[in-house]
Design brief:
Distance between the termini: 41 Å
Oligomer: single chain
Shape: globular
CATH architecture of one domain: 3-Layer(aba) Sandwich
Order of helices and strands: EHEHHHHHEEEH
Low-confidence stretches: none
Radius of gyration: 17 Å
Helix content: 25-40%
């Protein structure tokens, strides 16, 4: 798949939080590379749907995860539906262990080409959606990147969720991968700083463990 190939975008493609898509509607198209970066850096839902359709939809994504060796992670729907998962619902789910193992495959093997790996690392480091989550608990002299996931369940009986996958490259050491899926004690349209502080503490625990190996 060429990162320079452009795909059309329209206002109808907006799905929840879609800042980069909305900013480029007048342009009418974005390259696959631009979309991929926006999905990682800003969590643009509309562009995530467009790229998911381009690769064959949720079923194709799940097939690719199985081929990678991940027998848990799955997608079944598109945004924004995939962000609403009730108790006992396995649709659109993963586990912290499965996600950590998949990230280890991506960052510590030749699963990606060196160029693709370095590009993904740069995007993860640039990402700002998780600065109060796992990365907030990691040493500032480490190179760190992450990808967040959030679920807001206002006016339902399902708690909010704050998730994060972080990769850190300590000076002179192998990478540290931390995943945290947190079901908050509250519901509502936004996560609180207290919710995100829980993930920051997980980051601190992970860093302390690594430094005491």
């Amino acid at each position: 798949m060429s990162l320079t190939r452009e795909l059309p975008i329209t206002r109808a493609d907006k799905a929840g939080y879609s800042p980069v898509l909305e900013a480029n509607i007048a342009r009418g198209a974005l390259s696959i590379g631009e979309m991929a970066k926006a999905i990682q850096v800003t969590s643009d839902n509309g562009l995530a749907n467009l790229l998911l359709r381009e690769i064959g939809g949720p079923e194709a994504f799940t097939h690719d995860m199985r081929a990678m060796g991940d027998q848990v992670t799955r997608l079944d729907r598109y945004e924004v539906d995939m962000s609403s998962v009730g108790p006992g619902d396995l649709r659109d789910t993963s586990s912290p262990r499965a996600m950590a193992m998949s990230m280890a495959r991506i960052f510590t093997t030749d699963y990606l080409t060196p160029v693709s790996k370095e590009m993904l690392i740069a995007w993860m480091v640039e990402t700002q959606t998780g600065t109060k989550r796992l990365r907030a608990g990691l040493p500032t002299n480490w190179v760190t990147g992450d990808k967040t996931g959030s679920s807001f369940n206002n006016n339902t009986n399902v708690p909010n969720r704050a998730n994060d996958v972080a990769v850190a490259w300590p000076q002179g050491g192998p990478p540290l991968i931390i995943t945290c899926f947190y079901e908050t004690p509250t519901q509502g349209p936004n996560l609180t700083d207290a919710d995100q502080a829980v993930l920051a503490e997980v980051g601190r625990i992970g860093a302390n463990w690594y430094q005491n190996l």
